[in-house]
Amino acid sequence: MAETLTLTHRRVLAIALPIVLSNATVPILGVVDTAVVGQLGEAAPIGAVGIGAIILSSVYWIFGFLRMGTTGLTSQASGAGDGDEVDALLSRALLIGITAGVVMIALQMFIIRGAFWISPASAEVESLARGYMVIRIWSAPATIALYGITGWLIAQERTRAVLVIQVGMNGANILLSYYMGLELGWGIEGVAWATFIAEWGGLVLGLWFCRAAFAGTAWRSVARVFDVVRLKHMAGVNSDILIRSVLLQAIFVSFLFFGAGFGDVPLAANQILMQFLQVTAYALDGFAFSAEALVGKALGAKARSALRRSAILSSLWGGIVCIGLALCFALFGGAIIDVMTTAPEVREMARVYLPYMVAAPIVGVAAWMLDGIFIGATRTKDMRNMMLISAVIYFATVIPLMALFGNDGLWIGLLLNFVVRGVTLGWKYPALEAEADERASGPVAAA
Q: At how many degrees (to 10) do helices 264-300 and 407-441 cross?
């Protein structure tokens, strides 16, 4: 309990900074894989790796709920001092992840065919991409199970372990891609095998960091791991997060499609500027994750004041980062755009819409941080419902805004969605705090 109530800036940063550093390694891997196949001297392998990786990442993204749900539930169990439930949650997360991965392997032909039916490619690219995915999909159980391990470690504020896993996995992937793809001459298949080995290696490393849980008996207690009430609660939390995430993805996918209607140059400019949003999301992840862990522990400990301080400290640092990013984009955004494209017309247009990227971190920080706060509290029904409201408002406003202001209207609609998400979740925040009081006075229904 004392640990839960001791909340400092140092503690928030200790959780957040390893996640920020971990996220920084993610784009490096994509660059290296592309560079390796680029040395083959043909365009098709580059496109095949890109398409294959995007298809698998999109399917894996569906299971992102496992990371978020596991963090919220585990942090609350930890805050409540229920060590057995903490260990059992690890087993549940691993079982869900491995089962989902096995199902993906069994359905691989349907997944691959469906992806190319939706987005067809040339015969050569499709053939190479199929070969790449058929190898990589065998590491699906490891990849999805790692979502659960990551969430479990974050809930216990062990983000340095998450950093080591991510750096180790990506580092091994980079070295193996170079060796197998170029030195051994295996080409695109070598890159796929490198990722396969790295992902299973990442799971082994993750399990090693979780070894203390396996020293007890709760992780293998059938009665506890398969407790019907707890399984139903976990299923409810995960399904709410999944619906919320699908709605969010629908907004960003529609943004891409709407932008395509304005022509190739605006579309290219929008895609470049979306990378600024990616950087913002990666930077804020660490502070949102700190909110997840600390808020969950405070709620589990039934400590309203600690919950509020967790939310305030995490959000304060998130706000500081967003202000810094906005200033960085304002001062250096043009130079960043020039690095990302050499096309003069795209550079010019991206600069026209750059002010929206300066504004995005400021208007979006509340939505990002409140997401973390609500995940930690497992108030996932609120997250789902408020996302539904914001999605309806987005689609209802973005079309007339585009009709009036063109591509400016599209960006205004996206930023308006951030604002609505922040406002609606903020409206629900008092009920989140009240739950800590209710738990302190007696048992309550799961949120």
A: 10
Tokens of 352: 């026209």
Could you tell me which residues come within 8 angstroms of residue 46 by beta carbon, excluding any fewer than 6 positions away?
34, 37, 38
Percent of residues, the chain, with pLDDT higher than 70: 94
At what angle are helices 380-405 and 407-441 packed, to 10 degrees?
A: 160
Mean pLDDT of the chain: 90
Q: How far apart are CA 122 and CA 135, in angstroms?
A: 20
Please give the Cα distance from 380 to 371 (Å, whole number).
9
Report d(CA 298, CA 79) in Å as an integer: 6
Tens digit of pLDDT for each residue in 104-135? 999 999 988 888 887 677 788 888 888 999 99
The token pair at 290 is: 């700190």
What letter represents residue 353's amino acid? Y
Burial 320-353 (b: 16+ CB within 10 A, else e): ebbeebbeebeeebeebbeebeeeeebbebbeeb
Per-residue pLDDT band for 398 (boundaries 50, 70, 90) equals: very high
> Which region, left, alpha or beta, applies to residue 244 given φ > 0 means left and ψ of -120 to 50 means alpha?
alpha
Q: Which of 167, 80, 79, 181 is nearest to 128 (CA)?
A: 181
User: In the predicted model, is pLDDT for residue 15 greater than 70?
Assistant: yes
Q: Which residues of 164-192 are buried (b: 16+ CB within 10 A; e: fewer)?
A: bbbebbbebbbebbbebbbeeebbbbbbb
- C-alpha to C-alpha distance for 312 and 316, rounded to whole angstroms: 6
Please check whether residue 191 is in contact with residue 177, taking contact to mean a CB–CB distance below 8 angstroms: yes
pLDDT digits (tens, 9 = 90+) for 71-102: 999 999 999 999 999 999 999 999 999 999 99
Does residue 291 contact residue 311 with C-beta atoms inside 8 Å? yes
